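Shipment paperwork, digital attachment
Item: protein structure file
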Amino acid sequence: MFHPGPYASRGSDVFPAQGMGGSMRKMGLVLLAIAGMSLSNLGFSQQAKPAQPQPAQKAQQHAANLDVGNVPTPSDMYCSGYITTEKVPDKLFVAAGHNSPDQSRYAGQSDLIFIHGQGMKEGDRYQIVRHVQDKNHYEIYRGQKAAVRNVGEIYFELAIVKVTDVQKDTAVAVFELSCSDVMPGDIAIPMVEREAPPFRKVSLDRYTTPTGKTVGRIIMAKEFDSFLGSKYKAYLSIGADKGLKPGDYLRATRTYSYTYRDFEGGLSLKASEFEDTQVKPQKLSINDVSSLPRRTLGDMIVLQVHPKSATAMVLTALEDIHVGDGVELMDTSEAPVLPPIRPSYSNAPLPDATTAATAAPPKITCSASPTSLRAGESASISCEAVSPDNRPINITYVANGGKLSSNRNQATLDTADTGPGPISVRATAFDDRQLSASTVVTVNVEAPAPAMPTAQKLMELDFKPNSVYVDNRSKAVLDDVALKMQQDPNLTAVLSGSADAGESPRMGLQRAQNAMTYLTTSKGIDPQRIQVKASSEPGRKVDIWTLPAGAALPGATPPSTTPPQGEPQPPVAVPQLTPPPGDIN
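Attachment content:
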């Protein structure tokens, strides 16, 4: 089965709301990620004027029994990444793929990758990981980079593959679980099965005093996210060194002292929080802020543990959780255990044999519109997914080219910066039991249409009233026009002359013809490359346009008014004025 994970080069969406795919520092997605939490659990009502709760109701609200339903999937367990001080072997690495060098990213069920190294044999299973570093020098909280360095090196988990053939020191492998695009240079390490943690049904209290149990901090998030919601992965500053183990539950917390002293969170203190009509309003000092209750932001379950760090997944988010927030170990001894999940690549039966015998995977059909386009255009991918068992369905999208964005059962393929050729978009529908179905649609990308040549207005010549003489300023302008035409032999020029209302109507045409005479006689420009025309716009000027081969003036282009060579020009009745010194006719 094919289960793409929340990484780059793909679009994903979830319906009904059960969490979102990876985002890059986008706060808006966090609000969607906590959509699974009902307003009633927070004590809100849908009525315009809620009734005041009675004391018994207040006690119930304080208990805030918020059910957790986001049970981790195999993709959560094997695609979450980690930070570790342990040495990760790098002797085996992804060298290429079946379509190398044309293809450099691999994530599809039909993709084959080549792993280079020694000691591999058919049937071996490997996890593909990537050693990464955060290139963003901005610290989300003071001391973040030092805290990350203290717990080790960062690794993103990309896929699980199985070796089907070995030739010399190269193994051919197929995907069993895909989290993200695998690229040459990524590391292959022996696959180690992880024991499914005992998932529990826990309750959260909105305000909880410190319990004295192990505390730590969220020092980073998967994909370098800043804000976390349901299903997001967090990297913690505590691990095996503090007794943490898979399956432990942690509450995410934030104190008002931290918010008030934070260099971003405390910016609101610069604004007034009092009304002008208040007389001597009372105000807490910055030291008294510590008396305000500590907020519970949500809870998370530990997926894997390393010497100084742990990877946890957010289950319930009461509000947006930030990198830098605190975590505290929870006592879940009284919380009932939920049934374990079945890995998507395992042949083991479902916990309920009756369900296993009758379970039906989703069905999905997709279409692309248009199926053929030019590079730079976009295509819409529309999918219809149904579950015969009426289970909630998620849809993810992966493409081997272009950029994908999605919204429910719709995805948009952007082909900007994409070369010509087919692009395959795989859509996978899977339900909450990890039963899935996939389909592939192909969009053919053609080379972009050649840019149409366009006319360009360079400049204009100004004339004195009732004058058709080309003065020195106009000659300097025409010198530049001549230089451009000499550099590009395919370039033509259009000279459009205008006359004021009180001048002879034909004076505009004569001005354009005099400018042409200067270009042909003084600069040696071929008369066949110049057109002159009379403009209907008033003014004592000549507009100069240059036309590349195949271009035309904006709007209807009148026919050339250039007189045939060798024929006398019709006389133009213009005043016989004495030109100023330096002018020529």
